[in-house]
Amino acid sequence: MRRQSGHRLLLAPLGGLLLLAGSIAHADSGVGVDMWRGNVLDPRGGADSRPLDPHGTSWLSPLQRRSPSGNLYLCPAASPAQTELGDWLFSGSLDIGFVGVGGDEDNALWNRYADWEDGFILGLLQLEFLRPRDGSYASLRASRISDDDAYFDAMFGRAGSYKVHAFLRELPNALSDSVRSIWNGVGSNHLTLVDSLQVGASTSEQVGAASQAAIERQVSVNRSKQGLGFSMYLDPRWSAFADVSHEQRKGARPFGGAMFFNFPFPDNGGILETLRPVDDSTVNLNTGLRFAGSQWRFDFAYSASFYRDRYTRFDYEMPFALSPVIPGAVSAPLQRGQFATEPDNDHHNIKAAITRKLGNAGEFSLTASLGRMSQDDSLIAPIDCQGVFGIGLGGSLEPGPQNPFLFDCSQWNSSAALPRTRADMRIDTSLLDGRIVLHPLESLSVRAGVRFNREDYRGNWLAFNPLNGAYGYVSENGAQGSVVPGEVGFWYPGAGASNLTRIRNLPLDLQTTEANLGADWRISEGNSIGADLVFNRFEPGNREREQVDFRRISLNWTNRALDWLTLRARLSHLRQSGDRYNYDPYEFTFSSSLPGFVEPEGGVPAHTVDALRKFDLSSRDEDKFSLIATVALGDDMTLGASLNGMRNDYDATLGRQRYDTHGGTVQWDWQPNPRFMASAYYGRDFSTLELANVNDQALGPDPSLGGPTYPLDAVWSDRDRQRNAYAGASFKASLKRLTWDGSWTWINARGSNRYAFASPSALAYFNDSTSVPGNAFPDTHYRVNAITLGLRIPLGGRVSMRVFDTWARGRFEDWHYAGMEQTRVIEHRVYTDGGPRGYRNNLLGLLLQVRL
Amino acid sequence: MNNSLLACTFTLAGLGLIAWPGARADVETFMDLRNIAAVQGDAAAGKANSATCAACHMQDGISVVPLFPNLAGQHAEYMYWRMREIQQEARADSPMTALLANLDDTQLRNFSAWYASLPPAQHAEPARGAASHASEGARIWSEGDATRGIPPCQGCHGRKAEGHPLAAEVIRWRLVPILRGQAAAYVTQRLNAYRDGAHTVTSSARMMNGAAANLDDASIEALAKWIETGESK
To answer: Cα angle at A663 between A657 and A665, to 5 degrees?
Structure first.
């Protein structure tokens, strides 16, 4: 380690900057998460800019060391040269330079989590101060690619005493670069149609022309986060910590806009892809007290989060007119749709854990925690309309007994139409967890644990309108009831007395009990086997099963008998089963449970088909295996290979039936000396998901498969296959005074979807057999190829230059977006996002690194 | 930005460097001991030529002068490489510099083998054991001091200062000296030297530089006392 004197004049302003940084920092992020700041240019927070330490990892052992799994540890970066400043040692570096992007530089996928712009950048500023006398330290790292892609991270403290940590981070996230909006006000909570369109009176052609004329734009949701953390030792055994962070998200993203489905009615309804605003903030708080003694450990912690959305709701204007299915009738004009945004909510959790060491390296621990998630946000009115909504018979929009399907907006468009104005809902959680590990023999380790967890929903919601005695909620912004008489989404006496609709909340209480027992036995030096038994019982409230059990047995084997080979194998079998499956436990949440409900002619329609099994509660058998081999090819080279597979067989006639995955990887790593390293990998993975369902043919009460509601000729099945291949290689080489680095990444992912159906009755919109499509959708395809080559050139004792170039190409084929280049408006369906696009880009960068 | 600009940039950069003078001179005197072989020597030959050594370290390798270390029963690897370090450092203020200056490698190995073969001095067990916190020295030895950045000595030197527990199996751990019973004056002098960065030419010394960097005089005194006697200061 070299120490040099001087540079006080240079360091004085930098020190001032550090102090300023400390004073403007706001908060921190949590325990164990989000503790490392980096960006695309500097993913390892500056570690890549330093040469590797020629002395290796530790003074205690030779250069190359391997992990327990047999892989080589990475050679660490060399300690920076330090300058003496009185008691303090200083090291620092500054990377500044220029990047230029050529090609499809605005492409969203190229810019995902990065914001490349031509111009000057701060690659990395690193400052580090150490005072060996008492272990005090202070450090700062900062990088800026653009206003939306930057970070600042500073900390100071004294080893073994205290630490203060602060950061700021701006993280971009481009979602789409192919958005054409027919609305103004993107990013706000109020979308108004462009001037060329009339609210509720535009034709499909006019909307299509407005979409075509709209300038294609990028939408993104950028995050800005600030954090502050503090931890300290109260004495050698007691420590305390407190971390607080604040994150803001801002932008817009493609979203829905329901104004009644359009598929069977070419000139009616409206399926709108709107752009919803994202403008929220979350404060996270983690604090705790820990004791670590020679026999006992205690951990007391409190964590909380507070989510706040700037908007309670957002609305959008409807471009199309609606028309009723009744001849001679008229639909009420509807001008706006709306959505509630995510509610403001709070989360609190307290936790206490106690651990006692037992003899022979055994340990017993007990953890208890209580939590509460709550929201009491203001509730929005059921509809945003003036006048009337629904259907006027005989061409009249005059409310009254003569118009049983026409409704007065004033009885639904304010919070007075709600049973209460705030949500007042919460979920309480509780957890108790006990574990013990014993070593009855030196070669035998035994472990056991029990865990009990509950989620209790508190608060009830009955959707009752005190203004008119109706139950339920206006569906699709009133559009559905303005097309089909009575399909308004709420139950009301008289004409609506047979309306089947949702009227209350569904508490999804859950109790989970787990017991596990396992052991590892070292049969011989370098050879060990293990087994684990796990039993889980889920007891969900208001679900199809009241009790679901799963039992898993797993076996593992690790072999290190040969110096050059580490083998790890694992095999497991899981069986999930449960009590009787009730296909409809939700009746109490529907209007059919109301006293005044009148059973419709033909009976109450079945909730769903009784043969359907929801995949999370379905009985199933799961088998898994993995085999990992790590081969040491000499002291400095490793070859690894792995195979894995999983088979899931679901006991379901309808629903998910099969989910299988398998794959394999090969990787190679060579570190002959600290001046050269190279690695390469290749992997394949495959998955298959099969499911089946049935298309209902009538609104009948018979839930049985094969009955009139769900006839067998309406059954369809779907097989989704994913095939992925990926490869990469990298190297870093110091040849004389030059340091070269390079990397290559290749991804080729293909998804295919094949389907089968018993007859055209199985299909929703192709019951004309002449237009029935084939048996597969076109494959989706995602391919990325990226190469980076860099060169660092020393220009003197303190200055070096890094030149790097990244060439990247992405190609995407997704049939969901087929035809979007021609038009985004099909009948009354308006699509805003044109989908992902391919790119071919080149990024050239030149950075000057100055050692301060 | 076209790719020809990239090609030009790399080409110019490459040409620039070809002309750039001078590679960094590495520390050629540094001795990396992390992968050493076992030290073999002729103990009888070592004994035959040990008269000069015995003047200070005594014939039985158990010194009577507190500033001179006991050699009896010490790891041969530690003694051999320590002598190589002294030769390399060639410090003018060390009497050992002149004494070792003209010894060849075989002689160093022979002396190491001879003193390693001698029975170590008999020491009483530490009065309260290393796990006891009865003294400041025992506490630092056993636990270090996290608040001052001091690691526990026992991690390498053994719970009772008897050397690394794996020394019999792993050669590099024989570079860690057996300290039990060494005189406090000698230990103090060595720790001061490590703390002040006086030794840097071996990987072992560089590790000890870091381990001793935050020891103050009082801590060194307490540790030395505990090593010598196993008792409280």
So the answer is: 165
Q: What is the pLDDT of residue A28?
A: 32
pLDDT of residue B134: 53
Tokens at A55, concatenated: 């002395």
Q: Do A61 and B9 touch (CB under 8 A)?
A: no
Burial class (CB in 10 A: 0-12, 13-18, 19+), A120: exposed
List of long-range contacts for A79-83, beta carbons under 8 Å, 24+ apart: A79/A1, A79/A53, A80/A50, A80/A128, A80/A851, A81/A1, A81/A2, A81/A4, A81/A851, A82/A1, A82/A2, A82/A3, A82/A4, A82/A130, A83/A3, A83/A4, A83/A5, A83/A6, A83/A7, A83/A11
Q: Which helix (H) or strand (E) holds B55?
A: helix B51-57
Q: Helix or strand or coil: residue A281?
A: strand
CATH topology classification for B43-117: Cytochrome Bc1 Complex; Chain D, domain 2 (1.10.760)
pLDDT above 80 for B9: no
Phi, psi of A495 (to 5 degrees): -60, -25
Chain B residue with the nearest C-alpha to that of A806:
B6
> How many CB pairs (< 8 A) connect A and B?
84
Q: Model confidence over A216-239: pLDDT tens digits?
A: 999 999 999 999 999 999 988 999
Residue of B nearest to A134 (CA): B148
Dihedral sign computed on CA atoms, order A415, A420, A421, A422: negative
Rounded to the nearest angstrom, the minimum Cα separation between B59 and chain A is 33
Measured CA to CA, the distance from residue A143 to residue A169 in angstroms comes to 10
In this model, does residue B129 exceed pLDDT 50? Answer: no
Decide the pairing of beta strands A174-179 and A217-233: antiparallel
State residue A47's pLDDT score.
57
How many CA atoms lie within 13 Å of A65's alpha carbon, on the beta-carbon side?
Answer: 17
Interface of B with A in 18-57 (CB under 8 A): 20, 23, 26, 32, 34-35
What confidence category does residue A796 fall into, taking pLDDT thresholds of 50, 70 and 90? confident
pLDDT at A11 over 60: no
Strand segments, DSSP code E, in A814-838 are 825-826, 829-830
Cβ separation B207–A60 shorter than 8 A: yes
pLDDT given for residue B231 in this prediction: 58
User: The tokens of A565 are what?
Assistant: 């080979």
In sequence order, what are the residues at sequence separation of 6 or more whose Cβ sits closer than 8 angstroms to the Cβ of residue A418?
A379, A381, A382, A465
- Give the pLDDT mean for A613-642: 96
Which residue bears the tokens 């493609």?
A254
Give the pLDDT confidence of A743-791 residue by residue, as tens digits: 999 999 999 999 999 988 898 776 555 666 788 999 999 999 999 999 9
Contacts of A842 in chain B (CB under 8 A): 1, 3, 6
**Distance of CA A414 to CAs A384, A408, A466, Å?**
8, 12, 12
| Amino acid at position B141, single letter | W
Is the reported ipTM for this assembly greater than 0.85? no
| pLDDT at res. A760 | 86
Total Cβ atoms within 10 A of residue B51: 9
The residues that bridge with A750 in the sheet, in sequence order, are A723, A781
Residues of chain B with CATH 1.10.760.10: 43-117, 136-229
Q: Which of A62, A134, A160 has its CB closest to that of B146?
A: A160
Helix (H, G, I), strand (E, B) or coil at A400: coil
Dist. CA A36–CA A536, nearest whole Å: 36
Q: Which fold has domain B136-229?
A: Cytochrome Bc1 Complex; Chain D, domain 2 (1.10.760)
Residue A226: burial class (beta carbons within 10 Å; 0-12, 13-18, 19+): buried
User: Which pLDDT score, from 0 to 100, does residue A39 have?
Assistant: 78
Prediction pTM value? 0.84
Could you tell me the two tokens for A556?
A: 């593992």
Closest CA to A343 of A378, A389, A372, A297: A378
Question: Over chain A, what is the mean pLDDT?
Answer: 91
